Amino acid sequence: ILILRLILNNTIRVTSGIIFPCRTFRLTAGPVTLVDSELAVGVIFLSQTVVGILGNSYILHHYLLFHFRGCRLRSTDWILMHLTIANILSLSCKGVPQILAAFGWKDFLNDFGCKGLFYLHRVGKGVSIGSTSFLSVFQAITISPRDSRWAELKGRKHKHIGSSVCLSWILYMFASSFNLVYMRAKYSKNNTAKLKDLGYCAADNLDKISDILYITFLSVPDFLFVGLMVWASAFMVFILHRHKQRMQHMPRSKVSSRSSPESRATKTVLLLVSTFVFFYTLSCIFIICLVFFLNLSWLLVNVSVLVAGCFPTVSPFLLMSHFSSTSCCLLSLKKK
Q1: Is 93 exposed, middle or buried (0-12, 13-18, 19+ CB in 10 A)?
Q2: What pTM was computed for the model?
Q3: What b/e string do you get for 147-166 counting C-beta neighbours within 10 Å, with b at 16 or more?
Q4: How far apart are CA 261 and CA 329, in angstroms?
Q5: Which of 135, 150, 173, 305 has the most CB atoms less than 10 A away?
Q6: pLDDT digits (tens, 9 = 90+) for 204-237
């Protein structure tokens, strides 16, 4: 309702003591102006945030529903639940303020609000990286052959799921603490130095050494998880390729035309990892530009936010084909 008021009203209205600053949008034909571009960006952010939150909420509801019905979820299902929670946190803390800023409500956060939102967004983004990494590792352990050195971890992997996911939450809660120091409200009375305009908030302009330390401190956990993710994915590709070669040498009468549930789950995880690596690489490029550029353009800031929200928005729709646990749960319930 608040966003609709910001779009439709062209004057300042006072409702319940709160002032909503609105701008007039030109609806007549003519050359495109910055106001038109901001309105279009606001609609894009709104669509991305709504679709992403609804998709992740559906995945989370799916697993919670069958968990409370007595279904025993697999190890990867628990990781996916944390992934969806992290995606919802990331989209909410970044998308909603960006939508309000695009529709004209720019100065609605103080220093505490800016620090908190950027901190929670960074935590959600980091846990999403860690969950995707753990998902690929546990899936690689699941499909590892019996003669592999990882085969002995199959029976013990369930015990380490909770500690692994909790580790990613704690790690990124600590690593994201830098945002509590450098983020500011755009028009705070305490801000006397020149700030980087990030739309609805601002960041301190640091010297080059501090910028390098800042980007390094935030990137080290990401690179560790991404490296682990790529290694596990390469191992899964090798296992699938070797399995395919074995199937080619078997008689056709013994080869099933339908792939196994483990094979389908592995392909889904590989698709998820590939999508993540693609958007993560693009996001890193924009983050480096945001850190080292002094004068940030309106286009650079908005495109970086849009790219950062692509994986949390797309990932739940990639996972909707990974619901074989549903049929397994239904079978177990019928046996009861």
Answers
A1: buried
A2: 0.78
A3: eeeeeebbeebeeebeebbe
A4: 14
A5: 135
A6: 777 677 777 777 777 888 889 999 999 988 888 8
